[in-house]
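Q: Could you fold this chain for me?
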Amino acid sequence: MKNLVEDIIYSAIIGDASGYTLGGMKSAHIKAVFKDIEGYIDPAPALKNNMDKWRKPGLYSSITQLMLIAAASVERNVFRTDRFIDAVKRAQEHPDSEFSFFREPGLAEQSFIMSARTEKKEQVVPFSRSCARLLPVAIPLLLSENEVSLLDHCLRFISLFTTDAATASHTYIFLRILIDLCRAEGRGEFMHCVSESALNGFDYLNSNQHRIFDCGYNPDSFLGEMRLFTDLLGKISEVKDIEKAEKIICESVNTRLKSPVARGSVNLPETVLPFAILLTALTSPHSLIFHTASREGGAASPLAAVSAALTTAFYGLDVPHSLKEELANKKKIAAMIELLSSKNVRGEITGILYDSEPGLTSKEMEEYRSRNKKEPKKQAPPKNRRDVESELTKHVVESWTKIDKAKWRKEREKHES
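A: Sure. Below is the predicted structure, expressed as structure tokens.
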């Protein structure tokens, strides 16, 4: 299974890069502008006057960067929390970002990065909201090859970023589903394998509530999220239409949200995980999953990364040639993936990241600034004193006229009454 986990991580990186430039857009807009897709998309044609949202095609986000650091932090079948925190803390300062070389981190990631790099921990307020971006970041925990400690590793890992029970529970069940899909190796029906895995995972959590509590989460909230997830899988398992299933997902999630959602691609694990499962089940050929998921927009990076991981776990690795060849930093990504097979040299991954990522982030920022250059506004000629006095007089007269009219109306109302 170890080699398959490496393939899953690689496919998640490709998924992250596929969705990187399309994040925040609406699905209908993406499909209207980009009819045919091959390789990574330059978002410029879809941005028009919003070039401040431009991202460099072929690059990947902080999801990949943190995923690789997490992989480097698994030592002798144990996820080393201290090593992970230290690696983020030692990341170089970057002139264009307060979050070092990490590209486009979400709020949960920002909170963790600031906490790791701040000496006064008490000044950092813990993040407490949902975040789907953490689902793929946790995939390297599977390298521990220790299912007994997977729950503890997962919950402690997620607690570095957020105290949200929905994120923690969905991340754990996502990892359990990946394990079971790897074992199935394409045998049986995909949705059946996923549903069975989720139910078994729920039973396991129900009998290990004390471990959930020990990791700082309320077992009732945790199990409540899992019960809703397994029920939702039952509702969408027989649906063959993406739009209908997406509507079912949103309706289910909205019962517990203050702000209703209308898309499965919002940055919530409660929507992204079931939506990714659905996309994986309905996408054929399987190599299209990268484009299918990223074209949904919204939280495109985590959605495509999770969808790609699920697809690879069950059907095997099948990445389009163009996505392999056009991936930024592809040689060093390949080198880091190779290091995952050895337990003794995984720590070298962080050194490769420190060496290559700052430059990639700087290049993207340079191109970003170039694309967002605006012509200086033409300054109006200086006004002479006569013009200034004329404008001031006009303003005073208009103001007094309004006041006088208001007084006159009041006086008239008094007389009429």
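A (continued): Residues 2-371 form a domain with the ADP-ribosylglycohydrolase fold fold (CATH 1.10.4080.10).
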